[in-house]
Amino acid sequence: MGNVRKNLAESRERKVILQTIFCLAWPAFLEQILQTIVQYIDTAMVGRIGAHASASVGLTGAMSWLVISVLLAFGIGILSCVAEAIGAGKLELARRYGIQSLYFTIILGVVLGAVMLGISPHLPRWLGADPAIQKEASLYFGIVCTPMIFRASSAILGSTMRGAGDTKSPMIANVLMNITNIILNFFLIYESREIIFMGIGIHMPGAGLGVVGAAIATAISYCVGGVFMFAAYWKNPILSPKGEKKVFEKALSAKCLSIAIPVTMERLSTCLGQVVFTFLVTSLGTVALATHSIAITAEQAFYIPCYGMRAAASTMAGNALGEKNPKKFSQITGIIQGITVIMMTLTGLALFLIPGPTMSIFTTDAAVIAGGIIVLRIVAVSEPMYGAVIVFDGLFNGIGDTKVPFFISVFCMWVMRIAMTSLFIYVFHAGLEMVWVCMVADNVTRCILLCIRFYKGFWKKKFVY
After folding, report:
1. Which helix (H) or strand (E) holds 197?
2. CB 145 within 8 A of CB 108
3. Which helix (H) or strand (E) element contains residue 200?
4. Which residues on adjacent β-strands are paired with residue 203?
5. pLDDT the model gives residue 108
6. Residue 182's closest CA among 213, 204, 228?
7. So what's the pLDDT on residue 199?
8. How far apart are CA 59 and CA 457, in angstroms?
9. Which of 105, 186, 249, 371 could make an S-S bridge to 291, C-beta 3.0–4.6 Å?
10. Which helix (H) or strand (E) holds 201?
11. Hey, is 205 helix, strand or coil?
12. Does residue 30 surpass a pLDDT of 80?
């Protein structure tokens, strides 16, 4: 009888965990779907201008990821602390952590914005780009980095809201941002032209700004998303600082930083690695760079489910830490990883079967499509392992276990990806296909090392008072 009751209790507990995962994951999942659709449209719009335009936008993509990764890393520090405080029932403490996120938003928005604008004239040349695309790439990067404080608001305050269990507001912010981007792209990228709608010719005005138009549209959309995210944070019943003293608290900020700094170092290392990686791909020529940039964008749709799972994992892991419940953390990990691996096996199979039509969404260049088909099939086999990596990232970030994952990330990026890619390009004179094989080796190695860390149980130290 005792075993029956125990099994029923465990069954109810798993059901509650599944319901919580769904409630937290679906807004992040939908947000990522919409964001990826918009990125598809954005890339396709630019791709219609030509391979040089795609290369101009794609060239600085790794550096843009570096910037947003720093902002998200600081957001993770806040998210973990807010989720832990709420799990422990300390709502006032959660609100005070939220106030610290405002300081991080302002400071990082101003500092990163100034630095990125300062390097924008030189970045394409440093990356070894063809002189023909350097000017456009520089303008694109400078323009999209101008509203950095709004990007900081979206990233840091969005993470803070997720820590409090609100994944819907960041979703809405991203929807507004992406819709704005599409509409403005439509008018700013192309010249004025006639379009046919239901058999009727309509004159469509356009600024004809090309890559610069795409950058302006993106910058304005960042402003829209940042303003909405701040408004949602200000109204949140748990986090709202209305009527509170907006005090910078060193002790609380120090705890956030103790989690955020290893994540920041990991993201910096990874994104700097991506910059070097882009430099290596650039040495293969403009067509290879365009193929690489478009294929990376194309792949994103196939690992969308992971981001919903990661959002749920981070918040629930932090809550389990606040409750000092390692068993619950272990259950959450098993359930979320099981769901993720199944979904990513299916999406990886789909990617392997339809790489050609996927590439054709973004470009009509036959050489780019042909190269993309090969590299997308290469990466498709590693999708389940990459999904597991993304979820482990959310789980360990949620409990503030960020130092060892940092070292794992650095090793995989700089040894498995960068060093191996350099060897294949400069010694064996290999092409883009072997570059993507090195990407797969990075993802697989990272998955294995994170699995070992979880099953060895080193994270349990975080649950000791």
Report:
1. strand 191-197
2. no
3. strand 200-207
4. 194
5. 93
6. 213
7. 66
8. 40
9. 371
10. strand 200-207
11. strand
12. no
Q: Could you tell me the sign of the dihedral formed by the alpha carbons of 97, 233, 312, 411, in that order?
A: negative
Per DSSP, 122 falls in state T
Give the DSSP H/E element, type plus range, for residue 385: helix 383-398
Quote the CA–CA distance of 329 and 335 in Å, as a whole number: 10
What region does 345 belong to: left with phi over 0, alpha with psi -120 to 50, or beta?
alpha
- Give the pair of three-digit tokens for residue 15: 């059901």
Which region holds residue 303: left if phi is over 0, alpha if psi is between -120 and 50, else beta? Answer: alpha
Q: Which residues contact 78 (CB under 8 A, 6 or more apart)?
A: 97, 98, 100, 101, 104, 156, 159, 160, 163, 256, 260
Give CA torsion, residues 443, 447, 453, 456, to 10 deg: -150
Q: Would you state the pLDDT for residue 440?
A: 94
Q: Is the pLDDT of residue 357 over 80?
A: yes
Angle at 184 between CA 178 and CA 188, to 5 degrees: 140
Rounded to whole angstroms, the Cα distance separating 391 from 29 reads 13
Q: Which residue is associated with the tokens 């959660």?
A: 94
Tokens of 442: 């990075």
Kindly state the DSSP code that residue 190 receives in the 8-state scheme. S
3-state secondary structure of 191: strand
The three state secondary structure string of 282-345 is HCCCHHHHHHHHHHHHHHHHHHHHHHHHHHHHHHHHHHHHHHCCHHHHHHHHHHHHHHHHHHHH
d(CA 77, CA 82): 9
pTM equals 0.78
Tokens of 347: 């999406």
Give the residue from 347, 368, 373, 378 showing the smallest Cα distance to 443.
Answer: 378
